[in-house]
Amino acid sequence: MNEFIKASKNEREQIKKSNLICIVNEKLSKKGYQYLSHFITDDMGMDKYDLSICYQGEDKSYLRVYIEVKVRHNQYEDYFLQKDKIESIEKAAKFIGGKYLILYVNYCLDGTYIWDLRDMSKFKLDKRSCKKYTSVSNVTYVNKKVYMLPKTEAKYISYVHNSEDDNYYVKSNGVELGKDIEL
After folding, report:
1. What is the per-residue pLDDT across 53-69, written as a single tens digit (0 to 9) for each?
2. pLDDT at residue 70, rounded to an integer
3. Rounded CA gap, 126 and 120, in Å?
4. What percent of the chain shows pLDDT beyond 70?
């Protein structure tokens, strides 16, 4: 199994084993939204996003939450998301229609960080050297446009990625940092 498929499969496993869907459900139920269904994309990772959750509001309108997930084996000061990735998720969301929310979740060694990506103007746009294609093992790098995502703009949850066992998370004694996600 190539590294990309292994990482993609690991991301979907973390969605299943973590309480991510419960966290989003809890927040939205307080706003009058009722959970309808969710869909975790395939292990090949060829979809635009990793998870979508559908809700219905008290006014019978629909809200879809699109979630992109990364499992990190290294800690960084800040993180980034490629501009074309957020654009492809927005394009899919607009095609389906209705209200939507996009979240970017990073399971890290020091906790879990969740960014609300509804307003990308608050993030600095930069260029970074990235793999030309992340879906294949290669060493060809090109400059890509990326949004810089500071940890201070994320909601911090004290579930720590255990690098010894990719399928196991422990609750740490971490402190709540960053922003709360206002759904």
Report:
1. 899 999 999 999 998 88
2. 86
3. 13
4. 69
- pLDDT for residue 42: 56
Q: Give the pair of three-digit tokens for residue 146.
A: 């990326």
In DSSP notation, 5-45 reads HHHHHHHHHHHHHSSHHHHHHHHHHTTT-EEEEEEEPPTT-
Q: Is 153 helix (H, G, I), strand (E, B) or coil?
A: helix
Copy the structure tokens of residue 39.
Answer: 């869909």
Q: Do the bridges between strand 124-131 and strand 51-56 make them parallel or antiparallel, or are there none, so unpaired?
A: unpaired
